[in-house]
Structure formats: structure tokens, C-alpha cells
Amino acid sequence: MTIEPVTELGGGGALRLPRARVVPMSAPPATYTAAVERYLTGAGIAKSSARIYRISLTTWGWMLTGEPAPTGPTRRGAKPPVFPVAAIDDPALPEVLAELAAARADEMDADTVNRELSIARKAIGWWQRQGWIDGDPTIGIERRPAPPDRTKALAENQIAALWRLDVALREKTCWKMLYESAARADEVLCLNVEDLHPGDKRGRTLAKGGATEWIHWQSGTAQLLPRLIAGRARGPLFLTGRKAPAGTPTLDVCPETGRARLSYRRAEEIFEENTRLLANPLASPEDIEDLDGWTLHRLRHSALTHDAEGGTSTPMLLARSRHASVRSLERYARPSVDAVARHVAQRDPAARRNS
Fold first, then answer.
1. How many CB atoms lie within 10 A of CB 217?
2. CA angle, 334 as apex, 332 and 337 as ends, to 5°?
3. 198 pLDDT band (50/70/90 cuts)?
4. How far apart are CA 299 and CA 176, in angstroms?
5. Does position 1 have pLDDT exceeding 60, yes or no?
6. How far is CA 131 from CA 36, 41, 185, 232, 327, in A?
7. pLDDT tens across 32-81, in order?
């Protein structure tokens, strides 16, 4: 930003205030899509979040051209519009955008709408700081009230059904480790073979914030790991099925097989696809592709919730979750549907008379 010098007096002899003029830090990209990529790279968005950010900003790309974003099956294969990022400063856009955002909010859940709006505003703010655009057409669009989701922890029968799925060894091991360790997905996916201590059923990983931490698992994971490792002594624990493409960082390539580390994005996609029927047991087969499955994070949430229900102490829950604050444990203190069902059944007078 530069300040134009004051060269004259205003009316009544008062000094005229200087005007701020934003000077672009670099030449603006040719298209909105290019601006999105520059933002994801320049703003330091984590790889694990970049996919979600890109999808959200692509959705907003349609609305920023005055068109409703495609939904459902029509979204697959739909090409995003091509337009200059400077078009965001169109003075007529805020009114049109408000209508499109309201219509989309009526069709989507509040959490999705609010997440997309937050991502759009972060990107717009970054583009403003680069001097590529001046205004924010989302001003005036309000976040939607989002009722809390009380079903994030999976029920015990759902966890049992998950273990019965016919999936590859890699997925079985990854999902077992996520649930048994209550670790974050990125903590498990960044594990290397040399980080494992199989005899102690634990491994050393990089936790949130960059700290080195231990995660611990149980017999289910311990029984699967030797088959997954298959004699390898080093390299990423969870690998893709193909050779790593050129340019893949050395740390993400297995030196023995040449295969790449499994990404968070791909691991999430596989889990979501395989759990659609479990998440929507009454859905018909022809509708299942348009429905959502579970997220990997629900395994961690379920494990910690089940620990809390089993009477695990607060210090141990803090150690298992690796949260810094006791307040962060409140989300796991809410009993699951199974715990509530047992509580009600145990206090059923008719059941007590029949026992």
C-alpha cells in the first residue's frame, strides 16, 4: 500500500486526508481458477485442506458469474466457468450473489454452506491484500444457524459393521489403527515403517502443531501390520498402489517399492465411498452414489467417546486425544446412542420384573 502525498488544503484550511492506494504485489492471474491456485499455494493452505478449499472455491466460481452452482449428478464433470478475477469487483454482483447464496443455503446443510462462505471470504481477503481486487461481494451474506450434530460418534454396531466390510488390507489396517489409537488421520498417514515399535504396539508420529508424539494401538492393528509391512524396513507405512509420479518428495516415496505415500484426500475418498451404505442403510442402490458416507475423523471421535463412556479418566483422555485443554474433551463427554439405550433399558421396570 502507498500513501499519496498531501498537496493542498481542503475547505476551511483543514488538511485533506491522504488517500490510500493499493499497489498490486504481483500481476493478477489471467483467470479466477488461476487465482484460486495462487491462493492455495501463496496462503500456505495445508495439503490436507487444499482439496476442500478448491471444491468450495469452484462452487463459488459459478455463483461469482451469476450462475447457480451445479449440484448432485450434474456436478460431476461440469467445467467451472472461466472469467477474470477482476470480475469480482462488478458493482452489480453483491445483489445477485446474495440471491444465489440464499437459494443454495435452502438446498444444502448449514455446516456446508457456512464452511464454503468462510473459505470464500478467506480467499477474497487474500486477493484483496495482493491488490488484485478491491471489494468483497459476500458482504451482507450471513452465516446460517447450524444445529449441533449429536450423531458424530458411531454406534458400536456401526463400528462392528465397518470391520465386516470386504476391503483391501491397507484399508483394514488404516481404519483399525485410527479407531484403536484415536489418532488424527494425518497423524496415522504420516507414519513410516521405521517409526513403528510393533512389540510395544505404538508408533512415533508428527502430531498437530508439529510436535513428535506417540500413538498406541491394540491387537487388531498389531495382527494386521506384519502383513501390510511385508518385510519392508523403511518408507511410508501406507502406500498407493502405483509407482510415485515424478516430482514426489523423497520422504513420501518408499525406497523399496517406489510407491508413494497414501494421501489424506485419497484415504478419505476410499473411506467415504465404502461407508455410504452403512451411513444410509435405507437408501436404494441406485441412489447411493449421490449420498455421503462417513469421514475418517468419525473414527477418532467414536474412539474417544467410547473411552469416556467406559470411565476413562480425564488425564488419560487428554493423553489419548493429545488435546491441550480439558474443555476440548467436552465434545466426547456426550454419551452415544448405545450408552443412552443401555441406560434406558437398565431402568425399564418391565425388564427388571422379567429378569
1. 25
2. 110
3. very high
4. 9
5. no
6. 15, 17, 37, 51, 40
7. 999 999 999 999 887 767 888 898 899 999 999 999 988 766 666 678 89
